[in-house]
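Sat 14:20. Reprocessing the chain from the morning session after the first attempt stalled halfway. Input below, unchanged.
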Amino acid sequence: MQERDHSGNKTKPLIVFAGRSNVGKSSTIRALTGIKVIVGKRPGSTRWEQFIDLGSVDLVDIPGFGYMSGQSKTAIEETKTMIVQKLERWSGRIVVSVLIIDISLFQELVMRWEERGEIPIDIEFYGFLSEISQNVIVVANKIDKLKTREVEEALRYLEFKLMEAEPDTEPVIIRTSAAKRKGVRELADMIESKLSDLGYDKPSW
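Finished this time. Tokens:
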């Protein structure tokens, strides 16, 4: 694993993993690759991207955005701007973006943001990734935190809000519980399918 891309291959395709702080992004990456990514002790304290060499592609874990423990609103906005600028620079290399969402809190957070007249940050990032990436996969993580009867309703709401943001695109949603390793194989299969469609070899998970 590399903290920065030292491969020298500037055209190597990227799989980007993005998500708010504390949505289970690192757990998802570990479940997929077996590699434990470096995380800070507090939500949002990891400030730099980390690269994982998967052979045909590099996986890049970008810092969590949104709430950052102990950080001012200005610092949070600066981190968000840095993330956006880096993703824009990499846009020519990004072949798959994976946006991790905490499905157990998604509706509550969306309603809270919309009550303030603001675009929910998960939705904002979905729209941004859709602009710069050939493929976006949304991971509805922490599905185990919901009661069985709540799952389908939560997924329908997620799909509705994503289509509201990008009406011309049918969202690709994978339900997971990274902590319990549920849905991880389905996520890997979807990533592999997207890469295959573009002519890239299967990652060496």
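The CA atoms of residues 84 and 128 lie 8 Å apart.
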